[in-house]
Amino acid sequence: MTESATPVVFIHGLWLHHTSWNPWLELFTERGYAPVAPPWPGEEATVAATRANPGPMGGYGVMEVANSYADVISGLPSKPIVVGHSFGGLIAQILLGRGLADAAVAIDPAPIKGVLPLPVSALRVASIALRNPAHHGGTVALSEDEFRYGFANNRTPEECKALYDAWAMPSPGKPLFQAATANFVPHAATAVDLHNSHRGPLLITAGGKDHTVPASISRYTHKLHHNKSSAVTDLREFPDADHSLTIDSDWRTVADPVLDWLAKQGR
Q1: To which H or E segment does residue 84 belong?
Q2: What pTM was estimated for this model as a whole?
Q3: C-alpha to C-alpha distance for 217 and 163, rounded to whole angstroms
């Protein structure tokens, strides 16, 4: 890695710890990038510590998390590429729309304001937080069964347990409430500048087996960008991928195409 290496900021979503990006950090470093994977506000340095003390994360919403990553970006030597998964993918789009990123990859991103499809599986996952109003200002954890349905439904039970034990943690519930009400709120936290034709290129991915962010959500997100901005917006589908696609044993089948796409964009 050199001083001129392109910075890459990885942004995780709900229920996964920031260190779950470690294999991606190693791969991107090998390819000559300068990657970092900062935590969300209030998140502890390790999975175990975050599980033991999730309280400090409570109450943080999409805008606060996006602003915390904007602060990270302000300290980098140049505009980074941002790569986000789930709610991290939503935040990556916000940062790209603000002009803070040179390019963005939104991996199975949580729905931005304007996305209309409401698949039953996505509602089932979101309801884990939404059914209890107390989660709005606090944190919510997934049981192993809930993790299997929401993240690892297309993995073996053995791999699901290993992923859950390694990376699952409580997360703030507020982003889920914000996403659920976005289309009824004038200045929703999940709104993205869809009309910015001067932004950098955006890649959106869709997992064909994803229960948390079904492919219909990713396709609609792509449609919103494509219809309102002349900037590059591409869609890549992974038919067999579920929501664990950034952390499961097949993560390279996603990471390698992301690297190929970045190369094609001159990044």
Answers
A1: strand 81-85
A2: 0.96
A3: 24
